[in-house]
Write a structure and sequence with these properties.
- The protein is of the alpha/beta class.
- It has one domain: 3-Layer(aba) Sandwich (Rossmann fold).
- Helix content is 44%, strand content 17%.
- The chain has seven helices and seven strands; from the N terminus they run βαβαβαβαβαβααβ.
- It has a seven-stranded parallel beta sheet with strand order 3-2-1-4-5-6-7, with helices on both faces.
- α1 packs across α7.
- It starts with 8 loop residues before the first strand and ends in a 7-residue tail after the last strand.
- The model has no long low-confidence stretch (mean pLDDT 95).
- The protein binds nicotinamide-adenine-dinucleotide.
- Nicotinamide-adenine-dinucleotide (NAD) binds next to α1, α4 and α6.
């Protein structure tokens, strides 16, 4: 006898980027449909095309996650067109610049907080009220190993990712006792546009900002696989976790 388990709808922000696209493609394997959100319309459309080529339904929406009205609108649109959101990968983020703290530009610091912190907050704020009445759902916020340590030259990014972990832990406590779970994934450096850009800036920066040796970079799929696990019933007892995926680079 086969038991038909209803597949959830997944929503992924920043899904036009390297990690978000890998998450969206990985979740497509276990989802009825995937909502693709990115500020880059072309990149979002390409991810949707790749998912449809794999035989899964997808819908791409251009939106800025730092806007409350745009976030409210894309959550409504996905629920209306695809169905109830069961999995939410709250992943969009930016890296800012590499500069010593005393030279770090105010406007870039502000933008990092807008996108990386307010964006994650707004995603939680608008998706949780959909999941709470249904009593189930899985949310994975993309933080970074920069959520649990300092990084010279990355004041804005590090501050923003520490805040993502704080939001994750707060949301996890607020859904305690339900079948809703909110976890954070903390990738170390992943082969991606973002890390290539940061590496370039570090190499151009002062010697103090250049990093000492490191493990090989991971692949976006390494993150996507762990997001899929955290979103699955196999992780039913995992809530409020800071799940490091960095090949051991931040082992204390
Ligand atoms: N690449 C890494 O090594 C690494 C390591 C740790 C954490 N992360 C985190 O992983 C996430 C994804 O990073 P990535 O490496 O795929 O970077 P990326 O730049 O390839 O992808 C980020 C995506 O987010 C989108 N985006 C940016 N601002 C947005 C906004 N305001 N609204 C909607 N979409 C927006 C971009 O257009 C892009 O497609 C980020 O939160 C990042 O901080 C990345």
């Amino acid at each position: 006898m086969t038991i038909e388990v209803e597949r959830p709808v997944a929503l992924v922000t920043g899904a036009g980027g390297d990690i978000g696209r890998a998450i969206a493609l990985r979740l497509a394997r276990v989802s009825a449909a995937v909502g693709i959100i990115d500020i880059d319309e072309g990149a979002a459309a390409e991810t949707a095309r790749l998912i449809e080529a794999e035989g899964c339904k997808a819908m791409a929406i251009r939106a800025d996650v730092s806007s409350g009205s745009e976030t409210a609108a894309f959550v409504e649109a996905i629920e209306e067109r695809l169905g109830p959101i069961g999995i939410f990968a709250n992943n969009a983020g930016i890296e800012g610049v590499v500069a010593p703290l005393h030279e770090y530009p105010d406007d870039i610091f502000d933008r990092l907080l807008q996108v990386n912190v307010k964006g994650v907050f707004l995603g939680l704020k608008h998706v949780l009220p959909k999941m709470i009445p249904r009593g189930q759902g899985a949310i994975v916020n993309t933080a970074s190993t920069s959520a649990i340590r300092g990084r010279a030259g990355l004041a804005g990014y590090v501050a923003s990712k520490h805040a993502v972990l704080g939001l994750t832990r707060t949301a996890a406590l607020e859904v305690l006792g339900t079948r809703i779970r909110v976890n954070a994934i903390l990738p170390g450096p992943i082969e991606s546009r973002m890390i290539r850009e940061l590496d370039l800036q570090v190499r151009r920066g002062s010697a103090a900002l250049r990093r000492a040796g490191s493990a090989p970079y991971g692949r976006p799929e390494d993150i996507a696989n762990v997001v899929a696990f955290l979103a699955s019933d196999d992780a039913a007892h995992v809530n409020g976790a800071a799940w490091v995926v960095d090949a051991g680079m931040t082992v204390p």
